[in-house]
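FAQ

Q: What does a record look like?
A: Structure on top, sequence underneath. For example:
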């Protein structure tokens, strides 16, 4: 799989039908609530990507400066948001990605975004950039699945998508992984360098003398969200916690869990 071929192929993220319906309904109101619109878009990776792409485009001369949905809405008018949502709505029911349960994927990405925002505040990183990076950190995985559905499905049988070893398995098979693809897409979309770096180094944020604090935040947030999906108990979380990343950021497992906004009431406490 060649990265340049992947980047030039037709690729569009699927949106969440319920979010689209609520967003379009709000936009049709005589006086739309900007806060509600911002909150709705911020729960949908596809809408977030689309809005940030426009805000960071050369048209507005703000390339690499707009980091979040609220910042984007200050730049892009509601007429464009309406057009974007209507376009996404026509495709929402038609799109499917082989090997992906989209609702589970959307829930996971939003969990990562929320935890990333909380942890970023503790380590004094930009919280808006952290939320955006967390929300779209796995976009490269979807792009690879669209480009190579059969090969990615075969890899699933060896190393599941949410396995910590997934990036290395993809690199062995394709000479690139979801983090590299996601970063390349974000770069192509003219996103801020902080977000690009966080996505690119998320799997190994401090490897080979690299120091990407926001990537470390994403790494810990992804661990937390995946632990939630797997239903890990306290002992299992303690064993799987990426302590080497936490140590660099001066975050131990207790500090990460204290900052975690995820509702764990349905999970084990043993």
């Amino acid at each position: 799989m060649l990265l340049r071929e992947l980047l030039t192929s037709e690729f569009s993220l699927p949106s969440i039908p319920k979010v689209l319906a609520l967003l379009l309904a709000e936009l049709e109101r005589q006086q739309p609530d900007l806060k509600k619109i911002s909150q709705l878009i911020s729960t949908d990776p596809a809408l977030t990507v689309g809005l940030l792409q426009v805000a960071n485009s050369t048209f507005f001369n703000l390339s690499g400066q707009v980091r979040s949905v609220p910042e984007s809405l200050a730049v892009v008018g509601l007429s464009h948001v309406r057009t974007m949502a209507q376009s996404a709505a026509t495709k929402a029911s038609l799109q499917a990605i082989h090997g992906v349960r989209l609702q589970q994927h959307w829930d996971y990405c939003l969990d990562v975004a929320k935890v990333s925002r909380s942890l970023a505040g503790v380590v004094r990183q930009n919280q808006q950039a952290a939320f955006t990076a967390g929300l779209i950190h796995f976009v490269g995985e979807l792009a690879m699945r669209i480009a190579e559905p059969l090969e990615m499905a075969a890899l699933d049988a060896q190393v599941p998508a949410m396995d910590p070893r997934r990036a290395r398995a993809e690199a062995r098979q394709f000479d690139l992984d979801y983090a590299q693809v996601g970063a390349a897409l974000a770069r192509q979309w003219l996103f801020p360098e902080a977000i690009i770096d966080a996505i690119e180094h998320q799997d190994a944020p401090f490897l080979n003398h690299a120091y990407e604090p926001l990537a470390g935040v994403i790494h810990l947030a992804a661990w937390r969200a995946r632990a939630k999906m797997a239903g890990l108990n306290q002992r299992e979380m303690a064993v799987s916690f990426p302590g080497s990343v936490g140590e660099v950021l001066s975050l131990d497992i207790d500090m990460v869990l204290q900052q975690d906004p995820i509702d764990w009431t349905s999970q084990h406490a043993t």
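Q: Is there anything notable about this one?
A: Confidence is low (pLDDT under 50) at residues 266-270.
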